[in-house]
Amino acid sequence: MHLERILQSQGFGTRKSCRALIRAGRVTVAGTPVDDPFADLPTAGLAFAVDGEPWLFREKVYLMLHKPSGYECSQAPQFHRPVYALLPEPLVRRGVQSVGRLDQDTTGLLLLSDDGQFIHTWSSGRKRIPKIYEVGVRHPADQALVATLLAGVQLHDEPAPVRAAACIATGERSLRLTITEGKYHQVKRMVAAAGNRVETLHRRAVGGLELPADLPEGGWRWLEAGDLARLAAFAEPA
Ligand code: URA
Fold first, then answer.
1. 186 pocket-lining for ligand 1 (C-beta < 6 Å)
2. pLDDT tens digits, residue range 86-141?
3. Ligand 1 touching residue 102 (CB < 6 A)
4. Cβ contacts of 192 within 8 Å, gap of 6 or more
5. Ligand 1 atom at minimum distance from 102 CA
6. Any catalytic annotation for residue 214?
7. CA-CA distance, 65 to 202, in Å (whole number)?
8. 11, CA 20 to 30 Å: which among 57, 136, 216, 237?
9. Domains of the chain with CATH codes
10. Distance CA 55, CA 50 (A)
11. pLDDT in tens, 15-48
C-alpha cells in the first residue's frame, strides 16, 4: 500500500495532509526517513513513526482505557469531558468508540475499538459476559443486601428480576458485584432496588480481562491477542 494511504488508514488525516507530512520528512519507516508518499510498503507488522512517535500498522484498533471519574463515554458529551480526549488524535480520527458505556463517575476498565462488529458483539449483552465491579455503598453491605442482589431485584421497565451473577461483601460498605447484562445504570439501579445506594463504582474486569494494576487512571493500552482471548474466556455462544 502507498505510504500516504497507510497513514490515512491509521488516522493521520486526509490523503493530502498525509502526503504533506511525508514530503516534510516527518515520517520514518523502520527507523529510516521516507519522503516519497507513493513508497509501496507491505502493511503487515509495519513499524513507522510520525514526528518521532512510534506506531505499528493496525488493521483495526482494540484498546483498553483506565477510565477516570469525570469523563463521559458519549461522542457528544454534555457536561463532562469525553473519554476520547484521553486518546491520541489518530485513534479518535479513526472513529474509535467505547464498547458499551460507563457512567461519568464510574472508573475502571473501558474497552474501545473502531471495529463495528466487535463493538456490537461485546456491548449487546447477548454473550452474557461477566463484568466485575467494586462497589462502594452508603449503608452497610450486610448479608441481607448480598442475598437480595443474588436473589434478584425488580428494576423499573424490566420484565423480570435481575440477578447478580456473583456478589460478596468486601468491607463494611463495599461489595464485589458481577453482572452479565449491560443495562442502563444497572449496578446503581440494582443496589438502589435492594435498599442501598452506590457511592463509588469501579469496573475491575470484563470477561477474563482485568484492568492491569500498572495502568494508571487516564492511561490506555493496546489489546493484544492474549487480551482478546481473555475477554472471550467466559462468553456464552451468541
Ligand atoms: N452500572 C452502573 O450503574 N453504572 C456504570 O457505569 C456501569 C454499570
1. yes
2. 999 999 999 999 999 999 999 999 999 999 999 999 988 788 899 999 999 999 99
3. yes
4. 198
5. 6
6. no
7. 13
8. 216
9. 3-56 (3.10.290.10), 62-125+212-232 (3.30.70.580), 131-206 (3.30.70.1560)
10. 8
11. 999 999 999 999 999 889 999 999 999 999 999 9
Determine the Cα–Cα distance for residues 135 and 154; give it in Å rounded to an integer. 19
Angle, helices 186-193 vs 143-151, to 10°: value is: 120
Q: What string of DSSP letters covers 45-91?
A: T-EEEETTEEEE--SS-EEEEEEPTTEE-SSS-SSSEEGGGGS-HHH
d(C-alpha 77, C-alpha 179), whole Å = 26
The residue whose C-alpha atom lies closest to atom 3 belonging to ligand 1 is: 185
Q: Which residue among the candidates 35, 103, 105, 115 is catalytic per the annotation?
A: 103
Provide long-range contacts, Cβ within 8 A and 24+ apart, for 94-97. 94/10, 94/11, 94/61, 96/61, 96/63
Mean pLDDT on 166-188: 96
* Ligand 1 in reach of 199 Cβ (< 6 A): no
